[in-house]
Amino acid sequence: MTQGEEERRDVVFLVADGGMQQMLDGYLGREYAHRGLGCASFDFDPLEDIVVAPRCDPEVYGHHRGLLSFYQETHRRAIVMIDEKWEGSPGADAIAAHIGLGMAKDWEAGSFAVIVLKPELESWLWQENNPNIARELGIPSDYRQILEKSGHWPADNLKPVLPKKALEHMKKHHGADQSNAAFRRVTATISVRGCVDPAFTLLRDTLCAWFPETTYS
Q1: HEC profile for the chain?
Q2: How far apart are CA 181 and CA 152, in angstroms?
Q3: CA–CA dist 192, 196 (Å, integer)
C-alpha cells in the first residue's frame, strides 16, 4: 500500500557503486546545509535514501525501473546517478535519454532527475591544489603539478582528462587512498563552490529547485 504523501521521504538516490554512495554521504550528510549547496534542509539518511546497484553502471542503465520500483511507494522524488564511461556505454546523451524515458513511465514529471557523470565519478574529486584533497587522499600537496608532468592533467584543463586514471597514478606512485571511504572524506571537506563539474551543477540545481532556501517542505 502506498504511504501517505506526508509519510513519504524526500528523495531516493540510485547510484552505480559504493564510491557514489560515499560521495553523496559526504555532500549531503548532517552538515551539508551549511556547506553552500544553496538549498533548504531536507531529510537524508544514507541507509534509507541511497540504493546501490549490485552490478554497477550497466545495471543502472538497464534496470533502473526495477531497482526503484519499491521506492515509488516510499519516496516522493528520485535521482539516478551513473558514470558515462563503462564498457558498452552508448555515451552521455544516450544514457540520459534512455534512463529519462524509463523514469518517466513510473515517476511524475519534475519528480526525477538523471545525473550522468562525465566521464566518471572521480572527476568530482579533483580541484586544483586543494590542501583538503591532498590530506584526505594522503598525497603530496603539489599533486596538480605531479599530474601535469605525468600527462594526466594538461595545464589548460580544469580537470584531469581521465580522472580515474589520474587517481590510479597517484595511488601507484604516491600511495593515494582509493577506497570508497576516501570519497566521503574528501567531499565532506572540500568547498562545493570549487566544483565546476556540469553533473554536480545539475545535482545542486535540482536539489535547489526541489528544496528552495525559502521553504522547508
Answers
A1: CCCCHHHCEEEEEEECCHHHHHHHHHHHCCCHHHCCCCCCCCCCCHHHHEEECCCHHHHHHHHHHHHHCHHHCCEEEEEEEEECCCCCCCCHHHHHHHHHHHHHCCCCCCCEEEEEECCCHHHHCCCCCCHHHHHHHCCCCCHHHHHHHCCCCCCCCCCCCCHHHHHHHHHHHHCCCCCHHHHHHHHHHCCHHHCCCHHHHHHHHHHHHHCCCCCCC
A2: 23
A3: 9
pLDDT one digit per residue (tens) for the chain, 217 residues: 455 666 899 999 999 999 999 999 888 876 544 356 778 889 999 999 999 999 999 999 999 999 999 999 999 999 999 999 999 999 999 999 999 999 999 999 999 999 999 999 998 889 888 899 999 999 999 999 999 999 999 999 999 999 999 999 999 999 999 998 898 888 888 777 657 789 999 999 999 999 998 644 4
